[in-house]
Amino acid sequence: MAKAAALSLFLLLLSFISGGTLKMVNGEKTWCVAKPSSDQATLLANINYACSQVDCRVLQRGCPCFSPDNLMNHASIAMNLYYQSRGRNHWNCCFQNSALIVTTDPSYGSCTYA
Q: Which of 28, 32, 69, 102 could form an S-S bond across to 93 if both were Cys, CB 3.0 to 4.6 Å?
């Protein structure tokens, strides 16, 4: 168990060093989320771009992923929808270096990340 935790920490650190993207790890499922350090304008641009390419209806008021209603949450969901729809390639989770690929499912409540 300690080895798994150490490996996860190493991969997280590597993601910051390598520009915020990682390739799939041992065939594990991966998700694309917004970097916490991303500014509001970048997050909004990411939402607009991703949602121009994929169906983002899950972000609409009353839908499972609307809440919490903030740019970080909505950007992460939109960016992940784009990333998943394009085949989970590391280059599909760049978003001008404002994204991270994670191996822990970010789903919450009734909001399921694809």
A: 32
Q: Residue 99, Cβ neighbours under 10 Å: how many?
A: 28
Residue 31, classed as helix, strand or coil, is strand
Whole-Å CA distances, 42 to 28, 68, 94: 28, 18, 12
Q: Report how far residue 65's alpha carbon sits from residue 45's, in angstroms, rounded to the nearest whole number.
A: 19
- Cβ(102)–Cβ(31) under 8 Å? yes
11 by Cβ neighbours in 10 Å (0-12 / 13-18 / 19+) ranks as middle
pTM of the full structure: 0.77
The pLDDT tens digits for 35-50 are 999 999 999 999 999 9
Rg over alpha carbons for the chain, rounded to the nearest Å, is 14
